[in-house]
Amino acid sequence: MNPLKTLHAEQDQAVWLDFVARGFVQEGGLKRLVDEDGLRGVTSNPAIFEKAIGHSDEYDDALKAAGDERVIDLYEGLAIADIQAAADVLRPVYEASGGQDGFVSLEVSPYLALDTAETLDEARRLHKAVARDNLMVKVPATPQGIPAIRDLTADGININVTLLFAQGAYEQVANAYIEGLEKFAARGGDVGRVASVASFFVSRIDAAVDKLLDETIAAANDPDEKAALEGLKGKVAIANAKLAYQRYKRLFAGERWQTLSAKGAHPQRLLWASTGTKNKAYSDVLYVEELIGPNTVNTIPPATMDAFRDHGKVRASLEEGVDEAERVLAHLAKAGIDLDAVARQLVEEGVQLFVDAADKVLGAVAGKRQTFLAAGLDRQALALGSLDAPVKTAIETWRKDGLVRRLWQRDAQVWSGADEAQWLGWLTIVEDEAKKAAEYAAFSAEVKQEGFTDAVVLGMGGSSLGPEVLAETYGHQPGFPRLRILDSTDPDEVRAVEAAVNLERTLFIVASKSGSTLEPNVFRDYFLGRMRDVVGPDKAGRHFVAVTDPGSAMEKAAKDDGFRRIFYGVKQIGGRYSVLSAFGLVPAAAMGLDVAAFLASARTMVRSCGSDVPPDLNPGVQLGLAMGTAATEEGRDKVTLIASPGIDTFGAWAEQLIAESTGKEGKGLIPIDNEPLAAPAAYGKDRFFVYLRLDEGADPAQDAAVKALEEAGHPVVRIALASKSSLPQEFFRFEIATAVAGAVLGINPFDQPDVEASKIKTRELFSAAEKDGALPAETPVAEDDGFALYTDAANADALRKAGAGSDPESWIKAQVGRVGAGDYVALLAYVTRNPEHLKPLQEARVALRETQHVATCAEFGPRFLHSTGQAYKGGPDSGVFLQITSEAPDLAIPGRSLGFATVIAAQARGDFGVLSERGRRALRVHIKGDVAKGLDRLKSALS
Ligand SMILES: O=C(CO)[C@@H](O)[C@H](O)[C@H](O)[C@H](O)COP(=O)(O)O
Ligand SMILES: O=C[C@H](O)COP(=O)(O)O
Hints:
Layout: H1 3-11, E1 13-17, H2 22-26, H3 29-37, E2 41-42, H4 46-54, H5 60-66, H6 71-96, E3 103-107, H7 116-130, E4 135-140, H8 145-154, E5 159-164, H9 167-186, E6 196-201, H10 203-219, H11 223-230, H12 236-251, H13 254-262, E7 269-273, H14 286-289, E8 296-300, H15 302-311, H16 322-334, H17 339-373, E9 379-383, H18 388-400, H19 403-408, H20 429-434, H21 437-450, E10 454-459, H22 465-474, E11 482-486, H23 491-500, E12 506-512, H24 518-535, H25 537-540, E13 544-548, H26 553-560, E14 565-568, H27 582-590, H28 595-608, H29 619-634, E15 638-643, H30 650-662, E16 670-673, E17 687-694, H31 700-711, E18 716-721, H32 727-745, H33 753-772, E19 782-783, E20 787-790, H34 793-801, H35 808-817, E21 824-830, H36 835-852, E22 855-860, H37 869-874, E23 879-885, H38 900-917, E24 921-927, H39 931-942
Parallel strand pairs: 1-2, 1-8, 2-3, 3-4, 4-5, 5-6, 6-7, 7-8, 10-11, 10-12, 12-13, 13-14, 15-16, 15-17, 17-18, 21-22, 21-23, 23-24
Antiparallel strand pairs: 9-18, 19-20, 20-24
Helix pairs in contact: 4-17, 6-17, 7-8, 8-9, 9-12, 10-11, 10-17, 12-16, 18-29, 21-27, 22-27, 22-30, 28-32, 29-32, 30-32, 33-38, 36-39
The site of glyceraldehyde-3-phosphate has 12 residues, from loops.
């Protein structure tokens, strides 16, 4: 008879197969083993699935058909289907054995091996999902696993206890089984239909102990002792297993067990696992031949099974030489090798090995998912040059430490251990909002029905920049209102919005999370006043909706003023992470975008960046690690954003996210948006480039410039969007990336202390001005007909020492003279934001970059105060600032004694005050009269 068959027929030992794979089961390989070799069970583990799924294309059709699912669901779907198929093949064995054999094992996620409650949940979930009587759920025998084993047994679930190495742990496991059965019986369960195995790992013990023996032998002097120790090699694992078997016999005897036995309970069989020979010097069937005994199981890997079928010898070996086994272990102890310590280490390593395997198999599934999604997922490619090695190290650290999972579990220790856990609502907002897609669609239809021609978002920063990207990227949708944004207190900008719309057919979306931000409140006061004039006080509220967090003052005011509708944000989401919540979706719906499709696109990236996607395949995490590491390892902290025409306003949203999240405590990334592209030589070694390329309509000049940058060794991340409709993916990618970069920098990426500081200063200044009738007078450090220059005493001192004299140009030159390598220059313009004003600022940037070889920013106040302003004040002290203010004719605000001109002036002063307090290099250039002329003069001075 085939020796494999003989094991069961003559020795009452069940042969199980330590392997499973789709084709093998589907094509009848498993059935053949059952029929021809008398196979009685199958075990799987993460490493086995890693081999099956990660290294074959057998699963590709199933993955293609599944499409855009979570990676863990894809993996589990494959694994569960294989386990079910194998269980069905083994069902006849199960039936014939009266439910005592014919099992297939599926292991709980190794990520949970150190958590009792989660192991319990997971085992119960898998038990239900597989839905086969002959399933055994595998639970590791970690200290946390043991209570779970007891409780699961008490549920009547069949458990395969895995990762057992030590006698002591085995005893606890057997007792947990007995206790579980007692509980199950007490609840009226039929203990006779519960089966369990305790998997003792064998060969790994020899591999570990032999190594220690070699070290001991090398250190020993006595040749006899050396020889005796040599004789222990390849003996310890088997001795350990033999003694475990003796213990098994004792544990499943005696009164306590007899009580259960009388109720039909079956002992928990010992299963020999890890029975493939690792040391080529030993027999290839060693761990089968030496462990043959009744009522045991050996789960055998395919190669060992082939070898045993070919030349295995069957004899009742398990009960042989028990005394000798004792002597082997005593000798080992005498030689100073602590088997318990070895076992403890093997459990730890065993968990880690399965974690590594799970990472690999999830990575393999994630990789295939990406391939099969093809153009449905925005592609990302990193060309990091010298950063490659440190980023790889960071990726491995994140993998080993399970940091992607911990981020998703909202573990504040991923960052600074402050209140980060309370600010992670954006991780799950896409799923939450998708449930409300019908509500958004109804709102969209209502807006269309009402015949609004314009919808104007009144808000700042996190409440306006996302909507602005939508308005600019997707444009006017036929039949829907045109979406406009007002995020400036510049009187001319307010007037321009008013002039552009027909108030009678305009919907205002007042957006403020806190509800207390000055700007949206004054915009609201202004336009509500105007609307009352135009349509009458009763109807004015119908032209307004609010988006705000529950309980805010804005909510109350909106109710009092009879707003058409109030939409709510989520308190656990900060403004800059809010675009995929009501703050982005209400404007999206108002302008006629399909919110369901928008969220479905975002969800593809959410899933691609999931907790189940290891860092090397996780696009958001990868980008974040690259950005963070670039800053910490090489000082490449100027994240330079390049985007194809058509999606180029994305940068203004991304710069807020990056700057406000990371720029604090003297650290941070400085985003550089909308800087005209140049040849590689124009850039310093402080740059890190991110290129968002829109396949349809990419600019060949940008392509060429980016290619040149890459060839010159600058780190470049390319992100390719098949079409504009996949832009929502980028919001989420950048959110994860920014959070991860924040973790690398070791800061809290969810607060904005310096933005708050300047908001407070502005409010104080404006209130004082309302009381006093004007802002306090200031004395310029230099002045002529066109410019008046202001700064604080320390800056004035430094600038005078650097050559500033009586004329404004000398001050500007002295300020530029303070720029050094690695610095950036920021032009902070409190002027009307329009193309005419932007042009000279952009030209000045180019000139500054050419002469100073530094990164440059051009920002419009007050909007940047809610954005990059955080990093300018709180980030690295590498900014050289030129604040630019101007004089627009005032515009009154209903209910306020002072108008918009004072608001914007207070904002500029508040901003400057905080820059001064932080000791930043700052100079204010006030343009008298014509702004465009003043900006041209400034440009010349800067050139
Ligand atoms: O199901 C079990 C144990 O219950 C087995 O799959 C067990 O995990 C394997 O035998 C071992 O992981 C294989 O170990 P090794 O041969 O890699 O040392
Ligand atoms: O980025 C956020 C801005 O400071 C606006 O805040 P808010 O939405 O509370 O008005």
